[in-house]
Design brief:
The chain is α/β, with parallel strands linked by helices. It has two domains: 395 residues, no CATH class; 136 residues, STAS domain (Transcription Regulator spoIIAA, 2-Layer Sandwich). The chain is built from 21 helices and ten strands. The strands form three sheets. It has a six-stranded mixed sheet. β5 and β6 form a beta hairpin. α6 packs antiparallel against α17, α8 crosses α14 and α18 runs parallel beside α19. It is elongated and about 95 Å long. It is found in: Membrane. It is a multi-pass membrane protein. One of its GO terms (cellular component) is membrane. One of its GO terms (biological process) is transmembrane transport.
Length: 609
């Protein structure tokens, strides 16, 4: 009789089996939210409820501020926050990751949507475009998840991401200054905006009350974050700003206020956009999806390491896709993971995505029962929220570290920064990706390669650049090539080997220490064949040592062993050296004395810095 292994799925649930056929586990058990609910512990409930209440105090002002950063009505930030939290709670794999409107995405959304909005700045059309943008981001994320393309988050290297974020921080800072100071600037680029801000300040356009509220808000947030990090600084500032606005009637003194928010839950809405808008929206969606994915994977990895939870990149993409889809269908805009909000949730004891669900429910209650709660919130206060968030995006210490550690990567960072600052945020992300890819290509095109020698007191063979007095065998050159041999670098390899073949004294063997050579493509195979024939004409033999078996198989498949003597393939460098010495009787040339006394005391020393 066949036996089935069964178990009870959740308290009081039906018995299911883990084998095939009719005994398979129900498909709904594969949904992360369902799995989390089935394994939920009662002792987590109070902690999740408390964390949800505390988190809401951050979600509301940031959601409104980041909506306006994206060029959208403040209420859309709350709609977006509600739906993305619910969407990720159902489909997201992380227990405590918090998604929502993000300061890094706001300028990208604005750069995509605002050029498509009519000249009169119709807010309904802007909302529809932003919602379609979120749906496109969702589609990209879900398709990438199905195709298991989580690795695309690595398309942006850390140096270029630092430069991109620094440029983004400056763009946000300059863009929010007019709102902070109570005036408007009409500009199409960062430079024009800088000029416009300076001109407005010089012309006396600053509204004193607005500037006082905005600058005071920045001081309050940064001061509390530094002196009392456990206090919700943004909430405290927002409450103070509302109190000051009501007490001094700032709305009558030239300070723009948020005003009454629409009452109730957002309706299900399919965005109505023109066919001509699809192409530019798709371009923006690709950039937003890439940044959102990179943010989400990095945050999930950081917080997963603390909680011992494994990060599943493809599931994270599906979760972020579901969050964006939910937001896009209810008048929201694209979202990403938030490190600051996740940190707040973690510090306040969050144990599961119920924390986000509680936050979403509280925002819904606020919209139903108290939509006028933030009507006296000054717009300069929201600008203060955005500006303090932009400061956290910048990584000046990281830039200085790149300058000290590796100048080429510092220059990559500067180039990415310049791309954002001079060309725009969407162009900047394209430049950041292109620079990262080109940097990888550059390292493959011109890989590190060197001549090896024997060093007394050290096993093996070592870089003669680090050990200039390393011994060498007359007639033998040991050369290491630290990269796969492919079409991009095959001619560079050929030129280097030919150069070595013509050095004095002329070698008869050039041994390639090929352990780092992970591949040889067909273009490189053709170049190797031509190279071996040219070397043979000069009575020089090309020899390979430590070639990996898969690479050796490719060389045989390419027919190269018909040109390169099969006896010139050795399992180790030592075996190749021994064969050469047996054939020629060559002896190692003595090293030059390191300290002038001929005893060789200084021969084996550290590689040069």
């Amino acid at each position: 009789m066949r036996r089935f292994a069964g178990r009870r799925d959740g308290e009081g649930g039906p018995m299911t089996t883990q084998n095939g056929g009719h005994g398979t586990r129900p498909r709904w058990r594969a949904v992360p939210g369902v799995r989390a609910l089935a394994s939920y512990r009662r002792e987590w409930l109070v902690k999740d409820l408390v964390a949800g209440v505390v988190l809401t105090t951050l979600l509301v002002p940031q959601g409104m501020a980041y909506a306006e950063l994206a060029g959208l009505p403040a209420i859309t930030g709350l709609y977006t926050t509600i739906l993305c939290l619910l969407g990720y709670a159902v489909c997201g794999p992380s227990r405590i990751l918090v998604l929502g409107p993000d300061s890094s995405l706001g300028p990208m959304i604005a750069a995509t949507v605002l050029p498509l909005v009519a000249a009169d700045g119709d807010p309904d059309r802007a909302v529809a475009l932003a919602s379609m943008l979120a749906i496109m981001v969702a589609g990209i994320m879900i398709l990438a998840s199905v195709a298991r393309l989580g690795f695309i988050a690595d398309l942006i290297s850390k140096p270029t991401m630092i430069g991109y974020m620094n440029g983004l921080a400056l763009t946000i800072l300059i863009g929010q200054l007019p709102k902070l100071l109570g005036f408007k600037v009409d500009a199409d680029s960062l430079i024009e905006e800088c000029v416009g801000v300076v001109e407005k300040i010089a012309d006396g356009a600053v509204e004193p009350a607005a500037a006082l509220v905005g600058c005071g808000g920045i001081v309050v947030i940064l001061g509390l974050q530094r002196l009392l990090p456990k206090v919700p600084a943004v909430l405290v500032m927002v409450i103070l700003a509302i109190a000051v606005a009501a007490a001094f009637d700032l709305g009558e003194h030239g300070v723009s206020l948020v005003g009454e928010l629409p009452e109730g839950f957002p309706p299900f809405t399919l965005p109505d956009v023109r066919l001509a808008d699809v192409a530019p929206l798709l371009g923006g969606a690709l950039g937003i999806a890439l940044v959102s994915l990179a943010d989400t994977i990095s945050n999930a990895s950081a917080f997963g390491a603390r909680t011992g939870q494994e990060v599943r990149g493809n599931q994270e993409m599906a979760g972020v896709g579901a969050a964006n889809l939910a937001a896009g269908l209810f008048q929201g805009f694209p979202v990403s993971a938030s490190g600051s909000r996740t940190a707040v949730a973690e510090r306040t004891g969050a144990k599961s995505q119920l924390t986000g669900v509680v936050g979403a429910a509280l925002i819904v209650l606020m919209l139903l029962l108290a939509p006028g709660l933030f009507r006296n919130l000054p717009q300069p206060a929201l600008a203060a929220v955005v500006i303090t968030a932009s400061l956290s995006l910048a990584d000046i210490p990281g830039s200085l570290r790149l300058w000290r550690q590796r100048r080429t990567e510092f220059l990559l960072s500067v180039a990415a920064f310049a791309g954002v600052a001079l060309l725009g945020v969407l162009e900047g992300i394209a430049i950041a990706v292109a620079l990262s890819v080109l940097n990888v290509f550059r390292r493959t095109w011109w890989p590190y390669n060197t001549v090896l020698g024997r060093v007394r007191g050290l096993e093996g063979y070592h870089d003669t650049r680090s050990y200039p007095r390393a011994e060498r065998l007359p007639g033998l050159v040991l050369h290491r090539w630290d990269a796969p041999l492919i079409f991009a670098n095959a001619r560079t390899f050929r030129d280097e080997i030919l150069r070595l073949a013509r050095t004095e004294p002329r070698p008869s063997w050039i041994v390639i220490a090929a352990e780092p050579m992970t591949d040889v493509d067909t273009t490189a195979a053709d170049v190797l064949e031509e190279l071996d024939e040219a070397l043979n004409a000069e009575h020089v033999h090309l020899v390979f040592a430590e070639l990996k078996d898969p690479v050796r198989s490719k060389i045989e498949r390419y027919g190269l062993t018909g040109t390169i003597d099969p006896r010139h393939f050795f399992p180790t460098v030592e075996a190749a050296v021994t064969a050469f010495r047996l054939r020629t009787g060559a002896r190692w040339q003595p090293e030059e004395p390191a300290d002038g006394d001929g005893d060789g005391d200084g021969d084996a020393r550290r590689p040069a810095e």
